[in-house]
Amino acid sequence: MSTNPAIEADQLVKHFGETVAVDGVSFAVPRGTVLGLLGPNGAGKTTTVRMMTTLTTPTSGTARVAGHDVLREPEAVRRSMGLTGQAATVDELLTGKENLWLVGSLYGLDRVTIQRQTDDLLERFSLTDAADRTIKTYSGGMRRRLDLAVSLIATPPVLFLDEPTTGLDPRSRVELWEVLRDLVRDGTTLLLTTQYLEEADQLADDIVVIDRGTVIAHGTPLELKDASGRAALVVTVSRPEDLSAAADLLRRAVPEVHVDEPTRSVTAPAEGLSDVTRVATLFDGSGIDLDDLGLQRPSLDDVFLHLTGHRAEDTAPEEEISA
């Protein structure tokens, strides 16, 4: 088995006239893992994906997909990858089954392979009962699942997902997450751009954050959380009248505490799990009943705020720049 990365970006640059959309982006994605590509809207995520999937040519730099150079071997790159964009690209006038057959034929697959893959994908994405319905009758979640199924008809080892769950309700989003986890367990490599930080936290092994076309952070979700600020120790008392006493007791171990009356909680900076054990011993036998005691790490939204200066939900809708 090859140890080379499944996806590599090497100093990718893209200019649109005087506008620098991407400015020296580099990263590598090991086989069978998930990379989350995060950043404010307009940061260059979609343009980066378009260069890596041969939809637009880099101004400079290059990329490799499954070992194939996007500039020298574009056809091999396209045979080695699937792409699900921000909007479903299935044909509304065809049925779910016909869409899969159409794309399988375009890939040059034989009829037996197309039939086997079509049946398997319809079942995997819970679309068997809707296989003979035209796409215009599908819900948004069904269209997104079919769009992903179509991108997998040729069993590509690499899959690019550009905000694949945009517009889905929470239930459909979670269902799609499970499908993506199954793909990774089967060995598929994913590059995922998303506006949902929870999605990256749930799925990504590594995260690259880009802003204004450049990489500003790279690491695992836990590494990025740790880098954005210290964890907090949170003590939640059972009775509101114990809140003041709990704060006084916690001050014996930690000089800086914050009391939040509405949630009956006291928080303090923490270094790690050892602080939880130390504070649990402090409260043991104190007569103060606790509902919860634990360590709360910064969220990916905190990371986003720390790195870019604003929260993800404050970004305006992204305008995709096309070549």
TrEMBL record:
PROSITE patterns per the UniProt record, alphabetical: ABC_TRANSPORTER_1 (PS00211), ABC_TRANSPORTER_2 (PS50893)
Extract one GO cellular component term from the record: plasma membrane
- What keyword terms does UniProt attach to this protein? Antibiotic resistance, ATP-binding, Cell membrane, Membrane, Nucleotide-binding, Translocase, Transport
GO molecular function terms attached to this record = ATP binding; ATP hydrolysis activity
**One of this protein's Pfam families, by short name?**
ABC_tran
Q: How does it sit in the membrane?
A: Peripheral membrane protein
Which GO terms are recorded in the biological process aspect for this UniProt protein? daunorubicin transport; doxorubicin transport; response to antibiotic
The source's domain of life comes to: Bacteria
Q: What is its main location?
A: membrane
Subcellular location per the Swiss-Prot or TrEMBL entry: Cell membrane
The ABC transporter domain sits at 7-237
What family does this belong to? Belongs to the ABC transporter superfamily. Drug exporter-1 (DrugE1) (TC 3.A.1.105) family.
Q: What is this protein called?
A: ATP-binding cassette domain-containing protein
